[in-house]
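Ticket #4471: structure output looks truncated?

Reporter: J.K.
Steps to reproduce: submitted the chain below (199 residues) through the standard prediction queue, then opened the result file.
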Amino acid sequence: MRPLGIEGAWVDTPRVFTDDRGRFHEWFKSDAFREAVGHAFRFEQANCSRSVRGTLRGIHYAAVPPGQAKYVTCVSGAVLDVVVDIRVGSPGFGRWEAVRLDDTTHRCVYLSEGLGHAFMALEDDATVVYLCSQGYAPQREHGINPLDPALAIEWPGDLTPLLSDKDAAAPTLEEAGRRGLLPSFEECAVYRGSLVGGA
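Returned output as attached by the reporter:
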């Protein structure tokens, strides 16, 4: 695992073993995760989404504490996966980073609590699976419009974004900040520190 440019996010490119029967790879290893991130990853929920080409999901995040960390990979097709720093007070506030996840490289992205997450399907039937540190809790879930011009995320120009009504109506980053909906960098750091040394 190597850190991305946004503090609290990592990407892992596993070794893939191929022969005439097919392919095999390990998409999550707890010891490698703990070594890179500094604490164990205990997940409470596993999700799977299948999307048509152009589907844009996000930007999603959960209130901290406890937030919701995610370990994400694409098992079929390809997506452009985006991590957004929405933590008030972060040196990287408002920055984003994109990683192509697909069924060839089998990269995985881990984003810690307090970071925003979105992805766009680059192919039909793109299938994303992700492990979540906390279960879905509607009262703690929030979103930011992925087409917020101030964020200026570079989604593929040859695709028309297909958003849910909820994501299309989500506030901009500035609006979410004014409404007090964004996590603070300090709160996220304190919470992550509490995970160090955990089983």
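Triage note (M.O.): checked the attachment and the full token line is present. The mean pLDDT is 96.
Status: closed, working as intended.
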